[in-house]
């Protein structure tokens, strides 16, 4: 992890976000052939494996930016909660984290069209001794909950009056459960199942995924790539290429399927970024 941060710092120093002149960021990236993305190490969205940047979001970015004439995707590792501030500080060009599109985030940055639909799951000790099934059951049981700083599950916990333990990474959340410091770790189902499948000896189970309900309202969620608000040309070009992928299930799965994504994660075309940003769902 330390090595990843050092690599990120080096990349940030020469990032295209520092370029001057009157050209748009899209034109700068096309001239340089490199886009630098901020990521938080959350598998299977965007993470490092054997020193290489990989994941479903990264795969989408390589396809989309490649089609825009930007052949190389490089990464800067940051805690999830530091991604939007890092974007605003020009540490990277976009955020590659499958980040949930939420009204408060839309006030700080611009989101692409949805790339993934989300459901939540719970990581619990083997056998699920507290019989936890959803966020309400966590609140009612008094279970000690871990959530990732800046993640939507932290907002769910706050809305339900749960004082959750904040962790920086998914691995920290699993460690909290296996060490007994937390009874449960809440995150997207796709992430928790990836962790379980890639750590088969860990003494944990993952509950079936669910749609969280807050104040009687189902929290239908979707994630996308994050852009600075003044990089509209880049966002428009990105969305144009993204639509070609999300409108074609076979193409979509050819890019993200190897990371455990299925048609269930394919974004609903009626669920728009505009509605998600406005909270109209």
Helix content: 25-40%
Averaged pLDDT? 91
Shape: globular
Q: Describe the sheet with the most strands.
A: 6 strands, mixed
Computed CA radius of gyration, to the nearest angstrom: 18 Å
Distance between the termini: 37 Å
SSE string: HHEEEHEHEHEEEHEHEHEHEEEEHHH
Total number of strands: 15
Secondary structure category:
alpha/beta
Strand content: 15-25%
- Low-pLDDT runs of 5+ residues are 1-14
**SS element count, helices:** 12
GO molecular function, one term: ectoine binding
Keywords: Signal
Organism: Gordonia aquimaris
Pfam families: SBP_bac_3
Descriptive overview:
- By secondary structure, the chain is α/β, with parallel strands linked by helices.
- The protein is 37% helix and 22% strand.
- The chain has twelve helices and 15 strands.
- Strands 1, 4, 5, 6, 7 and 15 form a six-stranded mixed beta sheet that branches.
- The longest helix has 15 residues, at 232-246.
- The chain is globular.
- The relative contact order is 0.18.
- It comes from Gordonia aquimaris.
- Keywords: Signal.
- This is Ectoine/hydroxyectoine ABC transporter substrate-binding protein EhuB.
Keywords:
281 residues, six-stranded mixed beta sheet, 15 strands, disordered N terminus, Ectoine_EhuB, Ectoine/hydroxyectoine ABC transporter substrate-binding protein EhuB, ectoine binding, Solute-binding_3/MltF_N
Structure in a nutshell:
With 281 residues, the chain is α/β, with parallel strands linked by helices. The protein is built from 12 helices and 15 strands. Strands 1, 4, 5, 6, 7 and 15 form a 6-stranded mixed β-sheet that branches.
């Amino acid at each position: 992890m330390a090595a990843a941060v050092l690599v990120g710092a080096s990349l940030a120093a020469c990032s295209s976000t520092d370029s001057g002149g009157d050209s748009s960021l899209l034109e700068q990236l096309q001239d340089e052939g490199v886009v630098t993305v901020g990521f938080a190490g959350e598998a299977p969205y965007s993470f490092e494996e054997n020193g290489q940047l990989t994941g479903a979001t990264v795969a989408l970015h390589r396809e989309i930016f490649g089609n825009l004439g930007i052949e190389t995707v490089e990464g800067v590792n940051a805690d999830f909660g530091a991604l939007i501030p890092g974007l605003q500080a020009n540490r990277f060009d976009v955020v590659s984290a499958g980040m949930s599109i939420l009204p408060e985030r839309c006030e700080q940055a611009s989101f692409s069209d949805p790339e993934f639909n989300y459901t939540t799951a719970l990581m619990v000790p083997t056998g699920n001794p507290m019989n936890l099934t959803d966020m309400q059951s966590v609140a009612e049981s008094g279970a000690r909950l871990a959530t990732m700083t800046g993640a939507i599950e932290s907002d769910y916990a706050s809305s339900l009056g749960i004082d959750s333990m904040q962790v920086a990474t998914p691995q920290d959340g699993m460690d909290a459960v296996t060490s007994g410091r937390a009874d449960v770790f809440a995150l997207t189902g796709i992430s928790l199942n990836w962790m379980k499948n890639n750590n088969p000896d860990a003494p944990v189970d993952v509950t079936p995924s669910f749609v969280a309900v807050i104040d009687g309202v189902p929290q239908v969620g979707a994630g996308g790539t994050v852009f600075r608000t003044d990089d509209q040309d880049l966002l428009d070009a990105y969305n144009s290429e993204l639509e070609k992928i999300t409108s074609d299930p076979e193409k979509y799965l050819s890019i993200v399927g190897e990371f455990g994504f299925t048609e269930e994660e394919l974004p609903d075309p009626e669920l728009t970024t505009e509605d998600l940003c406005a909270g109209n769902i």
